Amino acid sequence: MNESTLSTRPSPSTRLSGQVRIVGTGLLGGSIALALRSQGVDVVLADASPSSVRLAVDLGAGRAAEEGDRPQLIVVCVPPDVTADTIEAELLRFSDAVVTDVASVKLAPLFELQNRGVDLTRYIGSHPLAGRERGGTISARGDLFLGRPWVICRDEETPGWVLDRVEDLAHDVGALTIEMTPEAHDEAVGLVSHVPQIMASLMAKQLQKASDDAVRLAGQGLRDVTRIAASSPELWIQILSANSEAVVNILERIQDDLAEITQALRNVDAPGSRRAIAREISAGNDGVARLPGKHGQNRRFASLIVLIDDTPGQLARLLTEIGELGINLEDLRLEHAEGAQMGLVEFSVLPEVVDKLTLELEKLGWRIAA
C-alpha cells in the first residue's frame, strides 16, 4: 500500500489523537504501528536499521521519522540491553512526549535510569503480553494485541495525564490494561513466560539425539511443551539476565520438585513413593485449573477429537456443521496423523454439550477418535 493513500485522520473510537513515534520496528513495534495506522493515527518509525524502517513503511506501518516530528507518545520497542539508553535519549530529545517501553523486564531498565538521575516524570514502563514464535518486522500483525493483557507499571508519582496516554495506546490496539508494580510484574512474567521458555528449551534439547522413530511418535503433548523452544538465544540471554533473581527462585522450587519425583521413581515400591508421584501430578492438575479460560473464566473444558481427511475443505465443512448445531467452541487444535492422509481436530467445549456434539457429529458421518 502506498503511504500517500493512507488516512491520517484517527477513527472516532481512537483515543490517541497526536503523533506516535515507534522506536524499533520488530515484531512488537511493527505490530503496534500497524494497529495504530489502521485507525488513522500518525505513526512515525525509527530503527537502528534503515532497511527495517523501509520494510515497515512498505508494510503500511507508518512513515519514516523526520527532523520536524513532534510526537505526543513514544513507544520504545528495542532489545532489553539498550532499553534504558533509548528511553533516556527519547526523553531528552522530545521534551513534551510521554515515553513508554515494551520490554519484558521492568525493574532493570528502571533501576538503570534512576541510577543515572534521569527525570522519569514522563516515563511509564509497560509490557504487552503478546507475541509469536517468529520475530522481526515481517512477522508484525495489527491484531497481535487484541484481548491480550498490557501491563502498565505506574507509581504514586506518575501524573494522571501520563498514565492516560499509555492507557490510550493499549486501548487503541485492543489490549486489556493491568496495573502492576515493576517488582510484581517481573515476578509474574518470570513464572508465566521466562521459566516456561527455559523448560520448553530443555525439553526440546532432549530431541537432539532422539531416534527418528521416537520423533515420529511425537504427538500434541510434546508439541505443546516445546512450542516456544524455537526462540532467539540472543534475545533470551538478555531477558533472563535482566530477570535472573525471579527466574532462579522459581527454578529452585522446580528443582526441589524434580528431585522429589526422581527419588520416588528410582524406587517406586518404597513406602510413600507412589503417593509422592501422585501428589506432584495432582498439584499440576490444581495449577492448570487456575489458568484463565475463555473470557477470563477459570473453567475447565471437555475435549473431543474428530478425524478428518487431509483434503481441502474438510476442516471448513466440519466447523460449518458445528456452527449449524449451535454449539460454541472454546478452543481448537489441529494435528496431522503420522503416516496417514488424515488430521485430528481437537475441540474444547463446555462439559454439558460434549455428549450432544459427539452424537450429532456421528450422525453427520464424522469419525470420533476420543
From TrEMBL:
<keyword id="KW-0827">Tyrosine biosynthesis</keyword>
<dbReference type="GO" id="GO:0008977">
    <property type="term" value="F:prephenate dehydrogenase (NAD+) activity"/>
</dbReference>
<keyword id="KW-0028">Amino-acid biosynthesis</keyword>
<comment type="similarity">
    <text>Belongs to the prephenate/arogenate dehydrogenase family.</text>
</comment>
<dbReference type="InterPro" id="IPR036291">
    <property type="entry name" value="NAD(P)-bd_dom_sf"/>
</dbReference>
<dbReference type="InterPro" id="IPR045865">
    <property type="entry name" value="ACT-like_dom_sf"/>
</dbReference>
<protein>
    <recommendedName>
        <fullName>Prephenate dehydrogenase</fullName>
        <ecNumber>1.3.1.12</ecNumber>
    </recommendedName>
</protein>
<dbReference type="InterPro" id="IPR050812">
    <property type="entry name" value="Preph/Arog_dehydrog"/>
</dbReference>
<feature type="domain" description="ACT">
    <location>
        <begin position="303"/>
        <end position="370"/>
    </location>
</feature>
<dbReference type="InterPro" id="IPR046826">
    <property type="entry name" value="PDH_N"/>
</dbReference>
<dbReference type="InterPro" id="IPR002912">
    <property type="entry name" value="ACT_dom"/>
</dbReference>
<comment type="pathway">
    <text>Amino-acid biosynthesis; L-tyrosine biosynthesis; (4-hydroxyphenyl)pyruvate from prephenate (NAD(+) route): step 1/1.</text>
</comment>
<keyword id="KW-0560">Oxidoreductase</keyword>
<dbReference type="InterPro" id="IPR003099">
    <property type="entry name" value="Prephen_DH"/>
</dbReference>
<dbReference type="GO" id="GO:0070403">
    <property type="term" value="F:NAD+ binding"/>
</dbReference>
<dbReference type="GO" id="GO:0004665">
    <property type="term" value="F:prephenate dehydrogenase (NADP+) activity"/>
</dbReference>
<keyword id="KW-0057">Aromatic amino acid biosynthesis</keyword>
<dbReference type="Pfam" id="PF02153">
    <property type="entry name" value="PDH_N"/>
</dbReference>
<dbReference type="Pfam" id="PF20463">
    <property type="entry name" value="PDH_C"/>
</dbReference>
<feature type="domain" description="Prephenate/arogenate dehydrogenase">
    <location>
        <begin position="18"/>
        <end position="295"/>
    </location>
</feature>
<dbReference type="InterPro" id="IPR008927">
    <property type="entry name" value="6-PGluconate_DH-like_C_sf"/>
</dbReference>
<dbReference type="InterPro" id="IPR046825">
    <property type="entry name" value="PDH_C"/>
</dbReference>
<dbReference type="GO" id="GO:0006571">
    <property type="term" value="P:tyrosine biosynthetic process"/>
</dbReference>
<keyword id="KW-0520">NAD</keyword>
